[in-house]
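Quick bug: Cytochrome P450 output formatted oddly.
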Amino acid sequence: MIVLVFIGVFALVYYVNFRRTRKRLYELAERIPGPFDYPLIGSMLLTIGKSPLELVTHLMELMHHLPSPMRAWLGPFLLVVVDRPEMVQDVLSSPDCVQKPFMYDFFRLSKGLFGAPADQWKRHRKLLNASFSPAALKSFVPTLNAKADQFTRELAGKVSGECFDVHKLLARYTLVTISSTTLGADLSVEKREVLEEYTSNAIQMFTNCFERIYKAWLHPDCVYRMTAAFREEEIRFKSFKQMSRKIITMRQALLNTKPTKAEYQQDSDPEENQELPKAKIFIERLEEIAHDPANGIDEDGFQQHIDTMMFGGNDTSAQALSNTLLTLGMYPDWQEKVYQEIMDVVPHGPVSYEDLTKLTLLEMFLKETMRLLPITGLIARTPMKEVQAQDVTLPVGCFVLIPFLKMHRDKTIWGPDAETFNPDNFLPERCAQRHPYAFIPFSQGPRNCIGMKYGWLSMKILLCHVVRQYRISTDIKLRDIKLSLSLVMKLNTKHLIRLEQR
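Here's what came back:
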């Protein structure tokens, strides 16, 4: 009895002190509407017993009828949902709101650009930005064209009138292109089964990691390590790391066989071998800055940067391209418009860097696909200082959630036909009437995606090559597609398309 009383008193004192130290947070939270404040558990009842697919449907229904902004509690954690573009801009453009919540550590990429703490991220991002300069992007174009041409030839074996899942092929394609361009390692020499095993394993691993986020009872490591989910993650993580280790080994072999500058000058005619300076790709820049201990990149951090680049450039691009081929098949009239534009701009041969700016219809179609089938459903930030978002003060210690999925279908932004597929939403005059933060598929502000421009470049080139050669069709309708919440949003169906040679 005495022990129980002691435990009760200790718990009460701890709780009172806990509340006292967070007084300002509770003060500001009271000013934000939120209908789901249950004692201790907050809003966790909304997530219990729901699959990722059910969760998206449920949250979308709620968010369209709830106030904005809105607060919710995930146990002791204050969540503030912000979906008005002007408020989103205040959050994402604030230098005091570039930190990501601790849940991003679940993905085990806390030393790469994806999940690094704010101070480390700022230093590394500044050093690595040049690896996606216009000069670097232009240098990728020949490789991207060669890989896209090879992929298009591979698709010839699929012209049979039968449906097939194009995502599996594209996941392998984007893995090879991201490694060949930004990481200086051509993985096309690897067996197809090895590449497909990497992509499928990574997708499932990060999907599982994401599910842990909304299962707050699994947040404590001491609890999570006792679960079957953790044991599965350990196996998948070990397999996941093998590919980046392979790339590091390939790079080391390349550097060991590369002649030194002195050897090169000795064996070369200086008048015939004048090398023009070229932009350093991501891996070269990473190798360079890792040599300086002041930059804080240890061996594990070096590998995590590569893991981040591989998965970030692989699964996101594969999903966006797969979704776009699916929507091209759904809307044949728009497909023909896109095809005619491509034939007017670049009817055959490689697509040049300059050609890409002329493909306005293709870009509109791609953006509309990413609006209704976003790659990322939501992102989160945690203020390091109080941040003013319009008339709301966001307290230190809260988690700010920005739901792209809801923003992209908000009728107050996109009109009464927000759920209807219409690339005209991205006509210049319509874009000018909308807030610039109404559509931010790669996030925005200082902590946006470092490879955003690379993503647009690589996707446009691949789509040009495929649409020029094939007419795409599908039996799937947009209304039948449901999205599943994950690090990269999933569909409830495979990307089943048919191809017909043009």
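Actually, after a second look the formatting is fine. The domain at 31-107+115-255+279-501 is CATH 1.10.630.10 (Cytochrome p450). Closing.
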